[in-house]
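A protein record pairs a chain with a discrete description of its three-dimensional fold. The following entry can be read in just this way.
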Amino acid sequence: MVSFPFSNAALLQYFPGKTAECVTHGLQAIWQRIGGVPSRVVFDNATGIGRRLGDVIRYAELFERFKAHYGFDAIL
């Protein structure tokens, strides 16, 4: 689910897993629907895209490429 705190709107895209492939595909579908990409995305419990080890965030390689392609910041 993607929520937009300033408008209290939300969109849901269902996929059978939490892998980087599922997350990136779901985000692409949602961004197509809203017609744009946010500048910052905050993730809660998204172990498929990366892990926080102290102050260091290690993203999955696929998700790193996805972030670079779309030009958004991600926060875990």
Summary: The chain has a mean pLDDT of 89. Strands lie at 2-4, 9-11, 40-42, 50-53, 56-59, 73-75. Helices lie at 20-34, 61-70.
